[in-house]
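We now fix the convention by which a protein and its fold are recorded. Here is one such record, which you should read through line by line:

>
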Amino acid sequence: MISLQFVITSLLVVLMPGTGVIYTVSSGLFKGRKASIAAAAGCTAGIIPHLSASILGLAAILHTSAVLFQMFKYAGAIYLLYMAWGTWRDKGGLSFKAQDDHKNLFHIAKRGFLINILNPKLSIFFLAFLPLFVPHDASSPTIDMLVLSLVFMWMTFVVFVIYGLFATVVRHQVVHSPRVVGWIQRSFALAFAAFGLKLAMVEQK
């Protein structure tokens, strides 16, 4: 059921730097190990609705409904631009003090969840991606897609955690340089803005 081709293809997809990776890395870099894991968990949880929609066939509705697609698209773009603006203008929020309390970690995970759930392209991607690896003679294709979805989610979480933990390793090398901190902060802001604008220009296919 789980082919080597699926594992390799999924790994390549997950490794590609995207909004979730940028958010997880920024969380690890500025807020510590637990924050990076919370961000990874939130981003991974954000793909659950898309995977579920693909399994249930609801993504087909999103694919054919221009109005629904535009609503999701612009909501996601606006949220990413909001994050870009907040990151750019934040003068004290990007400190290197670990935020380990449950409230802050939940907030970090929630933002990661919203980043992914507001991207309508994910539903369409999974609708086209998962069926490619389900055998034509499968007795229960829904179960096969569910298993593939769980594997993809697990790979996403592991890879994102690795990205985030790597960021925590290098965070102490820049903590004493306000100029580097400011440069990194603005780089993340520009990255969020770029992803937001890119999402806003996406056309329905």
Notes: The chain has ten helices and no strands. The chain has a mean pLDDT of 77.
